[in-house]
Write a structure and sequence with these properties.
Elements: E1 3-10, H1 20-28, H2 38-61, H3 69-87, E2 92-99, H4 106-116, E3 120-125, H5 135-145, E4 151-155, H6 162-178, E5 185-192, H7 196-200, H8 205-217, E6 226-231, H9 244-253, E7 257-262, H10 270-286, E8 292-294, H11 302-316, E9 322-323, H12 338-343
Parallel strand pairs: 1-2, 1-3, 3-4, 4-9, 5-6, 5-7, 7-8
Length: 348
Amino acid sequence: MSRLAVVLFNLGGPDGPDAVRPFLFNLFRDPAIIGAPAFVRYPLAALISTTRTRAATANYALMGGGSPLLPETRNQAEALEAELARLRPGQESKVFIAMRYWKPFAADTAAEVEAWRPDEIVLLPLYPQFSTTTTASSFQDWERVYRGPGRSRSVCCYPVSDGLAQAHARAIRSAWEGAGCPEGLRLLFSAHGLPEKVVAGGDPYQAQVEATAGAVARLLPEFSDWRISYQSRVGPLKWIGPSTDDEIRRAGAEGLGVLVSPIAFVSEHVETLVELDHEYAELAQESGCPKWLRAPALGTDPDFIGALAGAAVSSLSRADGPAAPDGWACPAVHGRCPCLKAQGGPGR
């Protein structure tokens, strides 16, 4: 029986108060996050992580002292492993986890994969939308440390996967119905933002977020009033917009409630459990929004897990190199997209 190793990539998060500062240092020393030479980037990362530790620790305290991201990712890995066993009973499949900025680091996971001796490897990000700051950084980190056996393929993104869209639509509808189907709501798809210069340099993230939101909205005809916004801005650079803050204020000024969907997040973590559930909920109240609802992250939703399994399996029939399922390829303007380069041109 051949062996298939699937490596799930995610951001990672501190598992306790003592991990907050080193986690932040690892984040800000990544050249994909701060594009400066190492002799500038490392001292700057040390400064930022030091000055932000107290506020970040307070945020994680609201979640019990640490991030729930790793436990949630483990649950997703177990569900994906079971789905792969169902889809490919003639192959032994095992799912591994590699985090970018906290444990388990890629080097530790690479050692586990190498010891397992797989015949095939699929690199599968838990970022549905590709960005040079997330997926590309994780892939580069993996390539730096893995020296074991196995023919390797990678899934660069899956922004319009049917399972992804169905899972988001179900989460949104469930949140709405659970609140009694209130009227006068604006559906707000909120994604983590990026500096404008990153997108201007060919990063396809914003276009892919828009594609995901459009795919989900088509499944929700009851929500004709929907918008896309971007959250979590840090630093002095101008970021893509509109910001989630501004869209909440706009809804309040128009007398509308908000149902927010974390469209670029598949697991609960600080951006959902603190930023959306606390900070933006307070802003909505201050802005006069009569209702604030939040759809949950996808977690182990069966359609989402099915989408991950489908993306992994479909990649096995492709040639080496990054690829996306469902025939997706980015418009040619997004030159940093690996699926565009692999497929030789623009897609839908």
